[in-house]
Amino acid sequence: MNLAKVIGTLWTTKKEEGFVGAKLLVLQPLTGELKPVGRPIVAADTVGSGAGETVFYVTAREAVIALKDDVDHMTPVDAAIVGIADYVNGVER
Amino acid sequence: MILCRVTGTVVATQKHEHLRHNRILICHPVDLKKELTGSSFLALDVTDAGEGDLVLVNREGGAARILFNDMHIPLQAVVVGIVDGIDVDVDQACKARP
Q: Which architecture characterizes domain B2-96 according to CATH?
C-alpha cells in the first residue's frame, strides 16, 4: 500500500465492460515522506477521493478485491485507492 | 518477510471498510546494517509497533487475508513482529539492490 496524490481524472467511453461504474483517477505515487516517486498511474477509486487529495492505494490482486464489494463482477484494475490520508506523520494533508 | 524501520503513521477516517481494523504505519526497508534502503510504503500494524521500531513486515496479500481472516481486505503489507535483536554476518549478505 502506498501514498499518492490525486493529480487528475480520466474518463473512457469505449472500454472493457468490467470497467463500467469504476471512477478512474490519475495518481502520482509518493514515498512515506510525501516525495513523488515513479511514474503517475491510473487507479480506480473506492472512497470518493478528489483532485489534490493525498490518498493511499493497493495494487495487483488486492486492487480487484478492493472493488469486489459493490459490484458482482471482477473489474480489471491493477490499482485501487482504498483511503484518504487525513494526517501523515501528524501533518494535516 | 523484510526488515523495516517504522518512520511514521497515517491517520485516515475515510478508507475502505475492510481496512478499519488497525493503525497504518509508514515502513521503510532497512538493510542488515539497519540503514534505510529503497522507498517507504504503508502497512497495517498488528503488533502495536511505534515510530522508530525495527519491525518484520509481511508483504503478501494472501497472508493479510489469512491473518485478518477476511477475504475482502485490500491489503498487501502487514507488520507482523517487532525485532528485538538481530545477529548476522553482514559480510555474507549481498548488497540490497537500490
A: Beta Barrel (2.40)
Q: Assign A71 a pLDDT band (cuts: 50, 70, 90).
A: low
Q: pTM for the complete prediction? A: 0.88
**B10 contacts on A by Cβ (under 8 Å):** 3, 56, 85, 87-88
Q: For chain A, which residues lie within 8 Å of any Cβ of chain B, measuring from their own Cβ?
A: 1-3, 31-33, 37, 46-48, 56, 58-63, 65-66, 68-69, 80, 82-90
ipTM of the complex: 0.82
Nearest by CB: A89 against B9, B39, B44: B9
* CB neighbour list of residue A49: distance below 8 Å, 6 or more residues apart: A6, A25, A55, A81, A84
What's the domain range around A53?
2-88
Joined together, the cell numbers standing for residue A6 give 490525486
More confident residue, B1 or B96: B1
